[in-house]
Amino acid sequence: MRTLISFSVLLVVALWFVTRSPTAPSHLLTGQEVAIALELSPLPPVPPSPTNRVADDPAAARLGQALFFDERLSGTGDVSCATCHDPARGWGDGRRLAKAIAHHPRHTLTLWNVAYNRWFFWAGRKDTLWSQALAPFEDPREHGTSRLAVAHVVHDDDDLRSAYEELFGALPDLADGARFPADARPVAGDEEHPHARAWAAMEERDQALIDDVFVNVGKSIAAYQRRIVSRRAPFDVFVEGLAARDRDKVAALSESAQRGFSLFVGKAQCLVCHDGPNFTDLEFHANRVPTGEGSDPGRPLGISRLLEDPFNSLSRHADDGGEEGRRKLALAPMGWRTPGEFKTPTLRNVARTAPYMHEGQIATLRAVVEFYSTLENAAAPGEHTETILVPLHLSEAEVDDLLAFLASLTDETLDADLRRAPASARLTSQSN
Ligand code: HEC
Ligand code: HEC
User: Fold this and answer.
1) 371 CB under 6 A from ligand 2?
2) Distance CA 289, CA 281 (A)
3) Do 389 and 341 share a domain, yes or no?
4) Are both 71 and 193 inside the same structural domain?
């Protein structure tokens, strides 16, 4: 009996040593899988943005934060960026399709880790974060306002105006209503629109002054959005554990989630497109998700709109003299892109950003994984077929494991002060 007890004690101690063994941080992952995990975390610091000279200026980020939550920057006085990008809803709106003043044909993209992206919008019709911010203001379905009206709000509000002028110098004197009408903007395809007529009546020099103000508003909002970062999910703690051979940290990922990780990088081939520490290859693919109304061509339209955009990274508004633009727009593959391609979204915090896909056509994460598993109702493959997409025939248990892994990419611990309108647009010691 006594030998049995001491044998058991010995066994327990031996087991303890084995499980604490520095050479076996996770008994579920192969050496190759561990190597892949170490490539996927940590998320590096936000990449530099040479086209935006205030990208990392805290005062610009504060002004941008005030503008992001300001409902006066809309035609109806009740829409802000946060109307659709609600910090409490994963910086989305929880809707299938977006809606502010009117319905929008696409699903709202999350802003989590948005500064890591190379292209913006589902079809990539913008190539910088700052020029992206200009589009919703003048979209009649979104803010329904104009660049003149935006400039007037900044000009007429003491707080916004002093924050702006400290960063960018004096605003033009917008009080002169003959030179600077209340509402004016170019309107593509509708020269008779009152906003378009008012814009056409302006001096070119004054139009340029207003464009500068509008761009500076966008650059400030971009500086703010660069802070919406999520990088400390259970998966990141797990990878830290793998690197440091720390069992407690490795335990941040359940065994089911670890099996899900193996599927994600292996048999399920998700990594082919959702690659890198932000779980996106930053490019466009046709994942054959069924489309509803379905006439959205995606990437081909995005490219042509980007090349025509007067605020693209080759324009005079890019602070690096067009250097990034020449590299990026030359890189933008043209010609062989086929309809049906959309940007690969990040999977960080994906468990919090339902519904999914560019039309919000899939309601739950389980249904997304089941779609990849069966490819049921998949859209017909285009000319450029993603041969990687084959029905995975996952078992129920494998679906659960993949879902557990996706849930382990959740970290919403962003500073509460960044999730609401600041007391002031100016960064002063009193207004933190
Ligand atoms: C009507 C709701 C709505 C409003 C208001 C709105 N957005 Fe969006 N946002 C969307 C939708 C929908 C998309 C995707 C549209 C598309 O791809 O064509 C989007 C996309 C984006 C993206 C691109 C993200 C990416 O990964 O490509 C950014 C950044 C963004 N919005 C920021 C803003 C900012 C800043 C404002 C305020 C100036 C704003 N949005 C106002 C609905 C809205
Ligand atoms: C061929 C490239 C490709 C592969 C492989 C791929 N995806 Fe995707 N994924 C995409 C694209 C592109 C979208 C957006 C498509 C759209 O909206 O039309 C997407 C969307 C998603 C979304 C919705 C995200 C959101 O915010 O709407 C999830 C979740 C997702 N994929 C998970 C996975 C998983 C899990 C796997 C492996 C089983 C996988 N993907 C394999 C390219 C791919």
Assistant:
1) no
2) 18
3) yes
4) yes
